[in-house]
Amino acid sequence: MFLNLVAFMIVVRLSDGVRVDSLSVAGKDAQSITLEWSLPSVVDAEWVAFKIKYSTDNLIYTPILLKNINLRKFRIDNLRPDTQYKIQISAVNKNELEGPATDFVLVRTLDAGLYFKLDL
Questions:
Q1: 48, 107, 110, 111 - which has most CB atoms within 10 Å?
Q2: pLDDT in tens, 16-66
Q3: Which residues contact 53 (CB under 8 A, 6 or more apart)?
Q4: Is the pLDDT of residue 76 over 70?
Q5: Please, is 39 exposed, middle or buried when counting C-beta atoms within 10 Å of its C-beta (0-12, 13-18, 19+)?
Q6: What is the pLDDT of residue 4?
């Protein structure tokens, strides 16, 4: 009985979490993607970080923990050119529990093709 009550309390607590709104791509190049997002106007002080997860294969996700709840923009570097990435973000509280994650954003890095400036 006690174990069921604890599990119920954890589920209820997570459902009250902060949901990151409107994750979008602010920029990209051959080796990086810049993300931006927003939060509700009031955020409880227990929310202290963000966790970004990204993948190219839907099997293995690379996590990035951003320990600053005031961030609204972040650039993921060292990516592969001309590759599609699946990305989402969630807020993380002091107990390292994640709130609801955003929907996934699909974005492809640019081709690293040959670029040059031609002066005529």
A1: 107
A2: 678 898 899 999 999 999 999 998 888 889 999 999 999 999 899 999 999
A3: 61, 62, 63, 64, 87, 88, 89, 101
A4: yes
A5: middle
A6: 53
- Tell me the three-class secondary structure of 13-38, residue by residue: HHHCCCCCEEEEEEEECCCCEEEEEE
Rounded to two decimals, what is the model's pTM?
0.79
* Torsion sign (Cα): 48, 55, 33, 80: positive
* b/e burial code for range 49-70 (CB count within 10 A of at least 16 → b): bbbbbbeeeeeeeeeeeeeebe
